[in-house]
Design a protein that fits this description.
Oligomer: single chain
Domain Ig-like: 198-285
Shape: globular
Largest sheet: 8 strands, antiparallel
Low-confidence stretches: 1-11, 309-346
Number of strands: 17
Radius of gyration: 24 Å
Pfam families: C1-set, MHC_I
CATH topology of the largest domain: Murine Class I Major Histocompatibility Complex, H2-DB, Chain A, domain 1
Keywords: Glycoprotein, Immunity, Membrane, MHC I, Transmembrane, Transmembrane helix
Number of domains: 2
Mean pLDDT: 82
Protein name: Receptor for activated C kinase 1
Transmembrane segments: 294-316
Helix content: 25-40%
Number of helices: 7
Order of helices and strands: HEEEEHEEEEHHHEEEEEEEEEHH
Strand order of the largest sheet: 4-3-2-1-5-6-7-8
Structural class: alpha+beta
Length: 349
């Protein structure tokens, strides 16, 4: 831990824009035939670059730009994830005991990472969840654990007796995490610092409340983007509905903004788009169907793709529910699991 705390960020300029390094860990109590007992995925700017699967028992690359990394890196990552696998399994069963649950399909999630903004400022987060709900988070500034549910107070009290846990996480998030992010950006500079401008289209939707215009931005990179609706030279801040920018699944991003308009006044509104891949503010207005057949076809294709992704996600959740077995599994006594966890966690500290 002391080595992590002494690490300093290399004195090199950061690439423009916002960049992040996040890790997502998932443990399953009853994984089933096609799901791992433990899965860890690392992301740089929301792009997966490393993956550990308990079924293979080794860390593997998920981005071509990681190919030059030597074998020692992968061996170190494999051993680190094996240790986290043991930690998270014990945590999951202990929290199940706190909830008086001894069987069935349950999950424990850990998410943590750091982010650097365009102005050079940085931030970080550390969260632990159970069955898809927040359980515990770390306040990095005060080195205190914040419980998100009554049961989590028991976890919080135990972790507070081992200050090493919080100190390790803080040292990593403010030191090695930022250093690693910088190095990954250097390795993947051609891919991670590229600029792909958005494809912008407007669709019209009839609802019970009237007419809605939706401005789509698709296939852009990086994720920093600004979309706004304008009318008569004024930005419609309060009237505009925004959604969070989401990964498209192909290494790019997508988002949209919507506004309600009076029937027959669609042409009065325009969508203004700013993005690092554009050398100017792009202004797009609604086109009548007679002039936008190809656009409608493109949007329909995108919407169908999004629907297929949604169906896949729903199917996956139903599969998890189907694997909810009725067999009895002995529940660890409260606190007993953490005694084992301490042995594994100290490997990390």
């Amino acid at each position: 831990m002391a080595e992590l705390a002494s690490l300093k960020l290399e004195n090199k300029p950061w690439p423009g824009g916002t960049h992040s390094l996040h890790y997502h860990y998932l443990a399953l109590s009853e994984p089933g035939p096609s799901l791992p007992e433990f899965l860890a995925v690392g992301y740089v700017d929301d792009q997966p670059f490393i993956r550990y699967d308990s079924r293979t028992g080794r860390a593997e690359l998920r981005a071509a730009w990681m190919a030059p990394v030597d074998t020692q890196y992968w061996e170190t990552e494999t051993q680190k994830q094996k240790a986290w696998e043991k930690v998270q399994q014990v945590e999951m069963w202990t929290v199940m005991g706190y909830h008086n649950q001894s069987s069935g399909t349950h999950t424990a999630q850990r998410m943590f990472g750091c982010e650097v903004q365009e102005d050079g400022s940085s931030s970080s987060f550390w969260q632990f969840g159970f069955d898809g709900q927040d359980h515990l988070s770390l306040d990095v500034e005060t080195l205190s654990w914040v419980s998100a549910e009554p049961v989590a107070v028991r976890t919080k009290r135990w972790w507070e007796t081992e200050r090493c846990y919080a100190e390790y996480d803080k040292a990593y998030l403010e030191g090695l995490c930022l250093t690693s992010l910088h190095r990954y950006l250097e390795l993947g500079s051609q891919s991670l610092t590229r600029k792909e401008p958005p494809m912008v289209h407007i669709t019209k939707h009839m609802t019970q409340d009237g007419t809605t215009l939706r401005c789509w931005a698709l296939g852009f990179y990086p994720q920093d983007i600004s979309l706004n609706w304008w009318l008569d030279g004024e930005e419609l801040t309060l009237e505009t509905e925004h959604v969070e920018t989401r990964p498209s699944g192909d290494g790019t991003y997508q988002t949209w903004v919507a506004v309600q308009v009076p029937a027959g006044k669609e042409a009065w509104y325009s969508c203004h788009v700013r993005h690092p891949g554009l050398n100017h503010t792009l202004t797009v207005a609604w086109e009548s169907p007679s002039n936008s057949g190809l656009i409608a076809m493109a949007i329909s294709t995108v919407l169908i793709t999004i629907m297929l992704i949604a169906v896949t996600v729903i199917w996956s959740k139903r599969c998890l529910q189907a694997w909810n077995k009725k067999s009895y599994v002995q529940t660890p006594a409260p606190g007993a699991g953490f005694q084992k966890e301490e042995q594994y966690y100290k490997q990390l500290c």
